[in-house]
Structures are given as C-alpha cells and as structure tokens.
Amino acid sequence: MEAAFLTFVFVLSIFLGFELISKVPSSLHTPLMSGSNAISGITLIGAVASVREGNTTVAIVLGVLAVALAAVNVVGGYAVTNRMLRMFKKKDKRGAE
Amino acid sequence: MNIDLLVNLAYVVSAALFIFGLKMLSSPATARKGNLISAAGMLLAVVVTLLNSGLDYKWIALGVAIGAAIGLTAAYRVEMTSMPEMVALFNGFGGIASLLLAWAEYHQTRNLTAFIAFVTFLSAFIGGVTFSGSMAAFGKLAEIIPGRAVVFNGQRIVNGLILLTAVCAGIAFSIDSASGYPIFLFIVAVALVFGVTSVIPIGGADMPVVISLLNSYSGIAVCAAGFVIHNNILIVAGALVGASGIILTRIMCRSMNRSLANVLFSGFGAKVQKAGDGPQGEVRPATAEDVYYILEAAGSVAFVPGYGLAVAQAQHVVRELGDLLEANGAEVMYAIHPVAGRMPGHMNVLLAEANVPYDQLVEMDDINSKMDAIDAAVVIGANDVVNPAALNDPGSPIYGMPIIEAHRARTVIVLKRSMSAGFAGIQNALFFGDNTRMYFGDAKASIQALVAEFKHADS
C-alpha cells in the first residue's frame, strides 16, 4: 500500500513538473538547470537522516560523503543560480557602469 | 506535538515553496525571487530533518561544512562560459549522492522487501550512471578527453549487453537482498561503466542534449532514493527535476530536428568531411575597415552568437560594439538559436553577464520573420545553426534542422578563425553567398578592432 501511495505522489509530481517547466522561457534555461541541480540536492535530507548514532564505520563514511556531495549541489546550485539571475536586466534598469 | 507529524507537515510547505519557485522562473523579472523562495524551502526541509532523534550531528556538520565550502567556492569562482561544465559536475554529484544514500541505507538494513530492494537497485544504478556519465560529459566539455564522438563497431551491442547485465543483476538483487551485497557492489560497478560507455559516442556539440538528459536522470535517481527511504519530498523534488530535464531534452532535440535515439547512438560528427566536399565558391574576405563601413551605414544589426563567442570570451566586446551601434542610431538585436552553445540557454547567460538587456535577445522564430529587413547580420562563432543547407539541401546531414536564416539579411558578416567545417563536419554555403563577407580572425580581437574603428571615427 505504501508503495502505491508513493507512486501516486510520483506520478502527480511528474505531471506538475511538466506543467511548470513548459512555461519557463528558453532565455532562462541555464538558470533552470542550475536551479534544478540545487533542488536535486534534496537528497541532503535523506543523507542527513541516514547518519544515525551507532552506525558502523562504513555507513558513516557513506552517509557523510552523501551529505557532503548533496550539500555541494544545494549550496552551489542556489548560489550560482542567484549569481546568474542577478545579471538578467531589462533595458531601462541597466546598471550605471 | 508529534515530531514526526511536524516534520512531514514542514515537508509539504517545502514542496509548495519549490513549486512556487519554479513557477516564478517563468519570467526573468521574477526569476531571482523564485530562486530565493526555492532556497528557503530547501533550508526549511533541512532544518526540520535535523529535529529527528538519534542523529549523529558531528558527522552531519562535517559533511555539510565540506559540501557548503566547495559549493560556494565553485559558485562564485566559475566563469559564465564554463556553466556547462559546472552543471555537468553538479548533475554528477546529485547522481552519486543518491547512489551513496541507497548504499548507506542498504548497508544498515540488509533484509529488504522485494519492492524496497528494487528501488534501492534503481537509485544506485541510475545514480551511478548519472555520475560517471556526467564526469564523461564534463571531460568532453573541459576538453580533458576528446570532444568528438568516439565510436567503434558493435558499440550498441556492447551497451545493450551492459544494460541487460544490470537489469538481470537488479532482479537477482530484488529477489534476495539479504545475501545480495556482492550483487549490489557489482551493480554499482556496472552503472559506473555504463555511464561512460553511453556518453562517449556523443559528440561535443550534442552536449546540450546530454546535459539535459543527465539532469533528468539525476532527478529520477533522487525519486528512486525517495522510494528507498519512504520520503515524499524527495519524490516530489526529484520528479520536478526529472520532468525539467526531459522537457529540455525534447526542446534540444526538436531544435536540431533529430530524434533522441539519433543523438544518443548515431555518433554524429564522428566523420570529418574531406576538404573538397560540399559547397564551393569564392569567399569575399573583409578587413576591419570594410566591416566598419557596412555597420556604420546599417539601420538594423542582428548579432548571431554561437559557441565560438564563448570560446573567445567575446561577450563583453560584443556588447560594447552593440552599444556603439545603438549610439550610431542602429537597432541592435541578438538572435539566439536554442542549441547555440554547449547547454540550453548558454548564450543568454553570457550576454546577460556582459550587461546586454534581455529584451534585446530575440528567439529564432521572431528574428527569422523579420530577417529580410535586417541590414547586417553579424555571425560570431556560429556555424551549423546558420547553414542554409538545413533548408535547401536534402542530402545534408543537418537537413530539416531549424536555423537562424542569416543568409536572408541584406549583408552577412561572418566572424571566423578559418574556413574549417562546423561540428557537423560540413562546409557552410553561407560563407560563399553573394551578400556574405568573411571577416577572419579571433572573434574577440576582430570585434575589438571594430570598436576601435568606431571610437576612432568619433574622435
């Protein structure tokens, strides 16, 4: 039953994703990709929850590696997307440089 | 209140914030705020996860600190021209994080139900393929390994066999996960091999498709990991990323008029056409002064940038030239082909970095409808995306691909290093057109020379 419920969530999310992403203009496709890199870093919370007290050494090493790599995606992904989007300017608002 | 309930309710809020964030990405005016909202959702999800009891915080802190330091350094150091490499790396990290998570969970609990064992297999396999495939794509983009398609006889059969092996191993693992540890390690190894063997037959200019596809894989791997740990937010977020990657892949394929299968398997661009093949004719070279007179007299100028613009780092000088032309009374546009560059939207980011306002960027269909009225089309480092053979030569490998029809402008100025063929390995009839002038040299230096001409004329 649990499996069916999770699959239900999965299928609905796919449809939602198609609806949302098809409205993103092609000029923003690079920020979309780096932003979705950041979102795929959501593995971080699974990785964090896997690092429990009393884990074996191997499990700790695997868990910490997963935490670190997912954190790279989350922090790096959001930061670089923000840096990029800051550069998108309309004509009348162009910086006085 | 029950901590578990609180955590799960917070995840619902996070999911809603991700969705709002993506929705605001539908316009450049709201996109930045959308990204911050999405980041707030992520922060909330991470913070409430830390409320779970029994976590080993010192190790978590270590992992987060290392990851955040690397992520921040990369995000602020990376050149905008290198964004494709960065996204490729991040796709890979997302993939391997899913693999490691599935592995860590399995290492703690060996006796899984068939369903959980199967999604553990999927998470590890897709994650592994995403990782090594992304590393291969990164290697090609950074030119650490040859960018051209690497093909050999029977390549598809070899890849098919590897995939079949993985599926069989996955089924065996699902049936008996309790004693399946060696099988699991075998699956990881096969995944890492398959990622590399499936990406090497794809050539450099098809990288927009590959990166989009790997982006999608990384999302699907996250979904599978969500099934492993029964976590809805991983499934929702992973599905959003997966859908995004699939849509981008489809757009990229359509913009080249090729099927995904053709991009993935055909080894396009592996053969280089001989110099004597293809259209021939007289080339009309131009000097900086000639080009200056053409542009000086033009009432409307459309720049058509390609990957060569990124290679030459010429985006800033192009904008400077664009500003001078505007001051001279010309209407200036930048025509962007969807597959120009090495990733979707690559040219837009480069020009935004150079302070080109986004309302001056014109998409392919819009510029083509008014191309006849354009006085000068300036092609900078683009080749196949302006090749008229795509329209009128049914024998051409790129026939049917939508192009920016620069050849219809009154005058075409092509900036190019030499007469070498484009990625598709074919000569470009545009270069021999009656209304075309070839302006040879490094794109950046060439445009600097034009800027100097304009400034010289002013003073």
Structural account:
The complex is a heterodimer of chains A (97) and B (459). By secondary structure, chain A is mainly α. Chain A has a domain at 26-88. Chain A has helices at 2-21, 29-40, 43-50, 57-85. Chain A is flat. By secondary structure, chain B is of the alpha/beta class. In chain B, strands 3-2-1-4-5-6 form a 6-stranded parallel β-sheet. In chain B, helix 4 (83-108) packs antiparallel against helix 5 (114-141). At the A-B interface, helix 1, helix 2, helix 3 and helix 4 of A face helix 1, helix 2, helix 3, helix 4 and helix 8 of B.
Tell me, rounded to a whole number, the average pLDDT of chain B: 90
Poorly predicted ranges of chain A: 93-97
Helix content of chain A: over 70%
Largest sheet properties of chain B: 6 strands, parallel
Structural class determined from secondary elements of chain B: alpha/beta
Number of DSSP E strands of chain A:
0
- Round the Cα radius of gyration of chain B to an integer and report it: 25 Å
What gyration radius of chain A follows from the Cα positions, in whole Å?
A: 19 Å
- Helix and strand run of chain A: HHHH
What would the keywords be for this entry?
heterodimer; A: 97 residues; mainly alpha; disordered C terminus; B: 459 residues; alpha/beta; Rossmann fold; six-stranded parallel β-sheet; 6 strands; 7% strand
Topology:
The complex is a heterodimer of chains A (97) and B (459).
Chain A: H1 2-21, H2 29-40, H3 43-50, H4 57-85
Helix pairs in contact in A: 2-4, 3-4
Chain B: H1 3-23, H2 28-49, H3 57-77, H4 83-108, H5 114-141, H6 155-175, H7 181-199, H8 207-228, H9 232-255, H10 260-265, H11 288-297, E1 300-305, H12 307-312, H13 315-327, E2 331-336, H14 346-353, E3 361-363, H15 364-369, E4 376-380, H16 389-392, E5 411-416, E6 436-440, H17 443-458
Parallel strand pairs in B: 1-2, 1-4, 2-3, 4-5, 5-6
Helix pairs in contact in B: 1-2, 1-9, 4-5, 4-8, 5-6, 5-7, 5-8, 6-7, 8-9, 11-17, 13-17
